[in-house]
Write a structure and sequence with these properties.
The protein has one domain. About 40% of the residues lie in helices and about 25% in strands. It is built from four helices and seven strands; from the N terminus they run ααβββαββββα. The protein binds zinc ion. The site of zinc ion has 6 residues, from loops.
């Protein structure tokens, strides 16, 4: 009695498992694709921007950090190649680019774990760029903790919330984030003592 149902349930749970495995495998592939996509764009953009400089490539400043094409590639990796997963990019003191992708299944700020320094990274960090794939560029509590912690060794940071929508932070103004919309300055997010007074 009821055997048919049990078989069906078993079949369904096996199917579900297979689907989950398939999803995990396709996600693992997408992560690699996304990481390579960003690294390739970094290579092209940075070589182009550094091509006219007489000094060694690793000493050239701002080879890609402020490049809108590079930002677009990171955004695309986060929202088109990946199913809205956070992408983190670190450009180190030798213009080496490191890319990591965030976890699945989290919504809002909870998926953010902040920055983990990649192995082999040369300090200082020239730029840390990460995405908010849900489409709003600001510094979350996690982001503020991250820049506060890394401020002595981090020069600049971007948070990307879409095409032309991003936040920009720099070491010399450690408690402010300039937020841009459609490419123009929209407002400045402030925190810390100064921010609370306003
Ligand atoms: Zn963030």
């Amino acid at each position: 009695m009821g055997n048919g149902d049990e078989d069906l349930n078993e079949t369904n749970s096996i199917k579900q498992l297979e689907n989950e495995q398939e999803y995990a495998a396709s996600l693992a592939d997408a992560r690699i694709t996304a990481e390579n996509y960003v690294l390739d764009r970094f290579d092209v953009v940075s070589k182009m921007n550094a091509s006219s400089c007489a000094v060694p490539f690793e000493e050239v400043l701002d080879v890609a950090a402020h490049d809108l094409d590079f930002h677009s590639a990171i955004w695309e990796a986060s929202t088109v190649i990946l199913p809205n997963l956070e992408v983190q990019v670190v450009i180190d003191a030798h213009n080496k680019c490191y890319v990591t992708t965030g976890s699945a299944g989290y919504v809002g700020e909870e998926w953010e774990k902040g920055l983990n320094l990649p192995l082999g990274l040369r300090l200082p960090i020239r730029c840390w760029i990460h995405t908010h794939p849900f489409g709003s560029a600001y510094f979350s509590g996690t982001d503020i903790s991250t820049v506060t912690r890394f401020q002595p060794i981090m020069e600049q940071a971007y948070v990307l919330g879409g095409e032309g929508h991003y936040g920009f932070w720099e070491q010399s103004r450690p408690e402010e984030l300039d937020v841009y919309n459609e490419g123009s300055l929209d407002y400045t997010q402030r925190w810390g003592v100064m921010g609370e007074e306003e």
